Amino acid sequence: MSQANPRILLVEDTLSLAVVYRQSLLQAGYEVTMVHCGQDALAVLESQPIHLILLDLELPDMDGMEILKLVTEQQLPCAVVVITAHGSADTAVEAMRLGAFDFLTKPFDGKRLCATAHNALQHQQLSSLVAHYRENFERQSFAGFIGASMPMQAVYRIIESAAPSKATVFITGESGTGKEVCAEAIHQSSPRREGPFVALNCAAIPHDLMESEIFGHMKGAFTGAVSDRKGAASLADGGTLFLDEICEMDLELQSKLLRFIQTGSFQKVGSGKTETVDVRFVCATNRDPLVEVKAGRFREDLYYRLHVIPLTLPPLRERGEDILLLARELLQRYAKEEGRRFVDFTPETARVLLDYPWPGNVRELQNVIRNTVVLNDGERVEPSMLPPPLSGAPRAVAPLSEGPTASPVSAEPRPVRPLWIVEKEAIEHAIDECDGNIPKAAALLEISPSTIYRKKLAWEESGRA
Predict the structure, then answer these.
(1) I need a surface site. Which of 83, 153, 272, 359 has the fewest CB within 10 A?
(2) What is the pLDDT of residues 87-123, one digit of tens each?
(3) Dihedral (Cα; 329, 333, 335, 336), 10-degree rounding
(4) Weakest mean pLDDT among 238-242, 380-384, 392-396
């Protein structure tokens, strides 16, 4: 709030005193509105912004304390100084309890009045600045992120500043820090929020298919191209194209991507027709892009074209109390999904979570909390409920092919078996233990449910089911 010309509301029913007070305040450079009763004061507060109220408690139509209570309850952005001829310690204490900044007992001179008004206005301005700071720089969540730490406040401010433009944002950070969440936050905070958000993971697509994934292809362009297909560039027209793990892209395709970024034009694989789209680019990598440039794995000209607004996501271990903030949010969410009673962590568990280095960052924290909720129940999470290594000791695993009365495992060397068989037995055992619930089995195995579905499909197609 600007207080270049502070407005003061003077509520005083004695006209001679009101005129004297008003004259002193006008000479000090303040704008003064003078009223003689409570109802007129309330009308002024509804009709115009006021920075300071000088409030007489003995009014002809109401007790001035009622106005003070209203200002406090409605959190009006103004300070209140109570003035009265009937001063007492009890009255002063009550006024301060209700939110008054100061208390003046009549009679007082103009110098004392102006000094008190000056102090009250300075205090109110400082309070407004603190409130503004807390609202904008101490947020506990923002556009899909959860976190109140200073590193995350910096991330929020960069997103807010970068989102309205079309400039390319280059996100870096360790795996699991939330790079796609960040890209979506940029999109949702931008004027393109009504347009599409298309994410493409450059590390998850074979190199020989990447060009088709980005630009699309024509029917017959290559073996398996049975029909025309739009690529991510066309699908993102009018919106945002997010290229995750951009440093995994091969050099030949990097040159085509550079031309696309420069011109907004491209050709589908197998087509001679040039298409033009309006796309905002956001990219990300968990590597150091400059190291990749120096090693010759990433084009320098593409790096400088993309690296317009750099944004680095902090690892979870550098976010302090955000660990517990995130953990509690995840605990409540997963407990609701799984029908568990968990509401919080014991102090000992909270200390374990804070002391752990979280090499897998937020993604690892999600897996740990999901695992804990699925395999346990109670109101508060104990340290022993956490999976290894947080629990401090490996969790015993029953033999896959034997019942609960199986004899101890022999110390004799075991024959080496094909990896797919061991993997298949482990997954099937977990599914059986969870009564066929694949999401629970995935949490137990610390993998995603889609991995299990993909494995089962591969076994069926190969005849290994």
Answers:
(1) 272
(2) 666 777 788 888 888 888 888 888 889 999 998 888 8
(3) 140
(4) 392-396
Could you tell me whether strands 102-105 and 52-56 are parallel, antiparallel, or unpaired per DSSP bridges?
Answer: unpaired
Name the nearest CA neighbour of 57 among 24, 83, 22.
83
Query: What residue has token string 């292809």?
Result: 217
113 to 20, 94, 98: CA distances (angstroms): 11, 21, 21
Beta pairing, strands 79-84 & 52-56: parallel
CATH architecture under which domain 317-385 falls: Orthogonal Bundle (1.10)
Angle at 125 between CA 124 and CA 127, to 5 degrees: 65
- The reply to whether 317-385 shares the fold of 142-314 is no
- Confidence tier at 398 by pLDDT (50, 70, 90): very low
How many residues are present in the chain?
465
Q: Give 35-64 pLDDT, tens digit per residue.
A: 999 999 999 998 888 999 999 888 898 888
Q: Is the pLDDT assigned to residue 401 strictly greater than 50?
A: no
Helix (H) or strand (E) holding 47: helix 38-47
pLDDT reported for residue 87: 60
Q: DSSP 3-state assignment of 63? A: strand
Q: Where are the domains of the chain?
A: 7-135, 142-314, 317-385, 419-462
Q: What fold, for 142-314?
A: Rossmann fold (3.40.50)
Amino acid at site 179: K
Cα distance between the two ends of the chain: 69
CATH ID of 7-135, from 3.90.226.10, 1.10.4030.10, 3.40.50.2300, 3.90.1150.10: 3.40.50.2300
Q: Are 266 and 233 in contact (CB under 8 A)?
A: yes
**Extended strands (E) in 40-101:** 52-56, 79-84
Cα angle value 7/12/16 (rounded, 5°): 110
**Among the listed ranges 269-273, 300-304, 321-325, which one has the minimum average pLDDT value?**
269-273
Which run of H or E residues covers position 34? strand 31-35
Query: Minimal CA–CA distance to 243: which of 190, 192, 307?
Result: 307
DSSP 3-state of 78: coil
How far, in Å, CA of 302 to CA of 52, rounded? 57
Q: Is 343 helix (H, G, I), strand (E, B) or coil?
A: coil
Least confident of 325-339, 368-382, 385-399: 385-399
Mean pLDDT along residues 381-386? 94
